[in-house]
Amino acid sequence: MKHRIWVRLGIVIAGLTVGYGVYGFAAFVLGVGHMNPRLPRYYKELSLLLQFLPLMVSALAWALWLFTLKRYWLWLAGLTALWVVLSIPALQAALPYLPPGPPRHP
After folding, report:
1. 64, burial (CB in 10 Å: exposed 0-12, middle 13-18, buried 19+)
2. How far apart are CA 42 and CA 14, in angstroms?
């Protein structure tokens, strides 16, 4: 194989490894927010819509950028990741305004 193919393969493998770590950690952080025993009503729906869905779009765009090197996939990955980062404090600030949820018993 040519040197260029090996370099490209190394970039893809390194990018997938970094992406796995970053997106795995982000999903873990968002998942910890769902462990609160006194979550307000509609928190899960808002979190899925405002955080998890954009996180998955960002991960898919990151993988597509790695394989195609099209700049718009990188922009989409970065902008949706920024959306997730900004939605975390926004959703936390909205918690007092959401109606109380049903009690969860362990």
Report:
1. middle
2. 38
Q: Which residue shows structure tokens 């898919």?
A: 60
What's the pLDDT score for residue 3?
Answer: 82
pTM of the predicted protein model: 0.83
d(CA 50, CA 80): 10
Segment 21-77, tens digit of pLDDT: 999 999 998 888 888 878 888 888 999 999 999 999 999 999 999 999 899 999 999
What CA–CA distance (Å, rounded) separates 44 from 26? 16
Q: Give start and end residues of each alpha helix (H) in 1-106.
A: 3-33, 43-47, 53-68, 71-94
DSSP string of 27-52, one letter each residue: HHHHHHHTT-TTPPTTHHHHHIIIII
Q: Look at residue 75 in the predicted model and tell me its pLDDT.
A: 96
